[in-house]
Amino acid sequence: MGPKETAMIYRPLLPRRALLTGAAASLAAPFVVRAQGKEPLKIGSALPLTGSQAGYGNDFATGWRMGVADVNAAGGIVGRQIELITLDTQAEPQLGINAANRFIGVEKLPMFYTAWSAVVKAQAPIANREKVLMINDGANSPEIATLGDYVYTAFPLAEVDIVKLAKYVCTTLGKKTAAVLYINNDTGIEAAKLYRDTFTVAGGKIVAFEAYDPKATEFTGMLLKARAANPEIVHIHGLTADTPQVIAQMRQLGMTQRITSYSAAYNPKLVQQLGPAAEGLIVTSLAPGVNDNPNVGKLLDRWKAEQGRVPNGLPYVQYQYDMVYLTKALYEYVDKKNQPATGDTLRDALLSIGTFELPMTGKMVLDGHRVNKPVYLLTVEKGSFVPLATL
Description:
single chain, alpha/beta, globular
């Protein structure tokens, strides 16, 4: 059954204290609580908690824990308190495989969540073989939609925001020549092709299309080629560690063109690190901002009170928070049918419900192995990200 075959919509009821509490809902308080007479319900999340992507991964985990705290405060899931199991992948495929094997073989989980494109692709064969539901909540490679019967995404893939961004740059901003610089891995390759092809169809011309090694720290050769091509705009599709370095070296070489990127560059640390070099940067967001959804402002205030700063990648954090509510919807559906929670029954629940109203990211409509969402563009002005357009 697909989403078009049902009118069922999941809408969570947030508890009164959810999002409104600060120190009272602190993450320092224990969030693994055993309900009377019932074992906790375990949720697995595979994230990079160490390594080059840890700045994002640990904030993802904090978003998860906030969601867990709020759902537990409201009674948990089907009367059971939640135990969050977060395993470190360092954004490395082999560690992702190890995490998947532990979730399935040791923790006996019928479903788990994951992110980072290379990790998702490495874990997919295990999920399919073991018939365990695996949900991507932060990676954007278009290939994720093709990885098998037990692999789904709650996060829009690059064909959503990159296509709309490339069209906007060419048709609305009127830029007719572009350079595309991308990390040579699962995150960058397909997304760069999407930008190139969409920009070309829209009437633009790609004058430089250059890949760089994921472990590179020196980008002069690639940037000199791009500078010689003299594009009107430059799109960079990298990760959180390399993107600031590419931008900094680009500016050092005298390239003043406006830069576009995707949601991984929506990071306050990037702006702090680059200073004036970040001015004019355009990034995508696949989640509503504080002006679009009041829940987001409450989450952000709570985060700042607890963490003393704003999160890295706020839109991604919103998705992590919401995955607790997505899990709740799936388990409640299975429970009402008096079925055991297995990879098959939870997958059937995902497909049967189809449409979910989630607290932080809004409506999620499943379309097979994809989801579609509005794209919010932000740009850097005077050292801060400000709204630019909604596509």
